[in-house]
Task: inverse folding
């Protein structure tokens, strides 16, 4: 399997504070890869380094076998699409206009979207079920709808790798499931690699091929959900008591939070 | 018209239609600007003069060619610059109230220009360069003041602009009060915004300086759209946010300061057209940039026409008209942006 993303010894610091500390991992093409870890463990910085938004202090990032620094900004945009954690809410454009923006890295400086670009945008909107909102303004939509539009924009970019920073945060259950299913579809139908930051361990175990668990900028564990999500490692990483058993739906671990009053472990 | 420019039609056709419509509007207002004045002409007379028909008095031809045409062209250029300036700053700062005058850029340019005039420099390049330095200094000052501490807040940006403007006004008054000669009258009139000093040679120079700026901003119009999606997403769609932002900031400040050298301070012009056009045609800058150029030109020609023809005798500074129209609009926009 060719590697969609390879990270070698990535290190980054804000001032003196080390936020990502010699992180290495690889993501295969068409793989669903989820990064988990407590707040402040460096997940978002990792995504930013991979998307080219920040230049890491040291270490290398390779995308589709080519070093990140050899990519022009536009060439990178044709290979990697990002769904950021926070997006402005006061965007005056319509859903269709926003999704069409995803074509920009494929267009010349003064080139205007053609019929083919509009067709790609329409399919992206259909894919995330927002085509009925095409002519609505982005700032009129609910949070869940807006997230689907931003994913459609990323899909319209036709990337080989899609990065999502906590795409399911503050979404209701149905929307969480929808976003995860969309990514699963994208991966299985188009062979797009998915790298996602998530706080939801159970969703992560159900969807991911492999997980990366981080703490304080370091890699605690990488591997299949069964290898990473084990009681010892989680307790060490999160510093709280968790119950890990098998998910009744699928042969993956299931994590349950244990409130103080119910903690019967001596 | 509603059908032809509907937001859901292909963009290229909309740009074409709207550019054509606003071009027509610009041509009509220019024609009105050439016809109306202390000695009024009919439109057909103006046509004859412009096209070189034989049966017009030479003095009439002189009035149109030497006095009115330069003035109309200057009004069109300055109107285009200020409208485009408003459009760019509104996108760049993500603030509907941003505008060269409100941000203090016009004031800063005026301080630089007055220093140049008092030093007896030529309008080009001496005065223009000082005006550019003044406008760059104020724009940086406003950005620094408003972004200290937290992220840039909408109100704090405007507040910083108003304060920098007030400071610039006091510097200008200080400089004026130190001067004891005839130049004072000129300066005061110029401060209120005045297009009557148009001179054909200078205007040709102005046009040649401005056209490349217009072209550059047109090229950057799609990146301007993407900037509205936030820095992170714009970067991910292939925009070099830093380079594009700095380029837009410098080009726009340069344009505005060059215009200010010729027209004085005209407030609020950058609010009217961009907002009107956005209301009618949506937020796509690939359409708004050419539309602001043409519409802004037409708008200032008409304002100047009013300034020339409303008073029974003489004329008033065109800045009076633009502020009377623009300031109430500013208040409406401020009210709406708070909701």
Result:
């Amino acid at each position: 399997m060719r590697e969609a993303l390879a990270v070698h010894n990535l290190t980054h610091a804000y001032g003196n504070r080390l936020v990502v500390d010699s992180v290495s991992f690889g993501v295969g093409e068409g793989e669903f890869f989820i990064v988990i870890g407590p707040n402040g463990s460096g997940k978002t910085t990792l995504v930013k380094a991979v998307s080219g938004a920040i230049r890491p202090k040291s270490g290398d990032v390779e995308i589709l076998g080519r070093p990140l620094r050899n990519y022009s900004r536009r060439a990178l945009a044709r290979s990697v699409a990002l769904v950021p954690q926070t997006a402005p809410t006061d965007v005056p454009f319509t859903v269709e206009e926003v999704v069409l923006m995803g074509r920009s890295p494929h267009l010349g400086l003064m080139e205007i979207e053609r019929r083919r670009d509009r067709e790609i945008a329409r399919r992206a909107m259909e894919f995330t079920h927002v085509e009925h909102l095409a002519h609505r303004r982005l700032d009129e939509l609910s949070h869940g709808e807006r997230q689907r539009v931003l994913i459609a924009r990323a899909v319209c970019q036709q990337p080989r790798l899609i990065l999502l920073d906590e795409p399911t945060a503050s979404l209701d259950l149905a929307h969480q499931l929808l976003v995860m299913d969309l990514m699963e579809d994208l991966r299985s139908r188009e062979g797009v690699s998915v790298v996602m930051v998530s706080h939801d361990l159970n969703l992560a175990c159900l969807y991911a091929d492999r997980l990366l668990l981080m703490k304080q900028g370091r890699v605690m564990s990488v591997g299949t959900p069964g290898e990473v999500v084990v009681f010892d490692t989680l307790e060490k990483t999160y510093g709280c008591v968790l119950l890990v058993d098998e998910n009744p739906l699928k042969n993956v671990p299931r994590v349950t939070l244990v409130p103080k009053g119910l903690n019967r472990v001596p | 018209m509603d059908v032809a420019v509907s937001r859901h039609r292909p963009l290229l056709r909309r740009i074409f239609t709207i550019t054509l419509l606003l071009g027509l509007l610009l041509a009509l207002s220019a024609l009105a600007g050439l016809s109306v004045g202390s000695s009024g002409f009919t439109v057909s007379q103006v046509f004859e003069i412009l096209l070189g028909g034989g049966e017009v008095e030479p003095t009439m031809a002189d009035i149109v060619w030497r006095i009115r045409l330069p003035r109309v062209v200057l009004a069109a250029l300055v109107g285009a610059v200020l409208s485009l300036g408003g459009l760019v700053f509104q996108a760049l700062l993500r603030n509907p109230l941003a505008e060269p005058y409100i941000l203090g850029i016009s004031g800063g340019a005026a301080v630089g220009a007055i220093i140049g005039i008092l030093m007896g420099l030529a309008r080009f390049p001496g005065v223009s360069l000082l005006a550019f330095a003044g406008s760059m200094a104020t724009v940086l000052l406003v950005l620094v003041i408003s972004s200290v501490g937290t992220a840039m807040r909408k109100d704090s940006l405007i507040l910083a602009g108003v304060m920098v403007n007030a400071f610039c006004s006091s510097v200008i008054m200080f400089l004026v009060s130190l001067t004891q000669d005839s130049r004072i009258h000129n300066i005061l009139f110029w401060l209120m915004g005045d297009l009557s000093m148009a001179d054909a040679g200078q205007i040709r120079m102005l046009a040649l300086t401005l056209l490349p700026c217009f072209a550059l901003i047109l090229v950057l119009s799609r990146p301007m759209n993407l900037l509205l999606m936030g820095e992170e997403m714009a970067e991910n769609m292939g925009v070099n946010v830093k380079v594009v932002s700095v380029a837009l900031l410098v080009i726009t400040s340069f344009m505005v300061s060059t215009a200010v050298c010729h027209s004085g301070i005209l407030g609020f012009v950058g609010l009217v057209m961009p907002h009107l056009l956005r209301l009618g045609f949506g937020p796509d800058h690939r359409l708004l940039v050419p539309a602001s150029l043409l519409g802004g030109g037409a708008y200032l020609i008409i304002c100047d026409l009013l300034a020339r023809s409303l008073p029974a005798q003489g004329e008033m500074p065109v800045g009076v008209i633009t502020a009377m129209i623009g300031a109430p609009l500013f208040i409406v926009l401020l009210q709406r942006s708070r909701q």
About this structure: The longest helix of chain B spans residues 58-92.
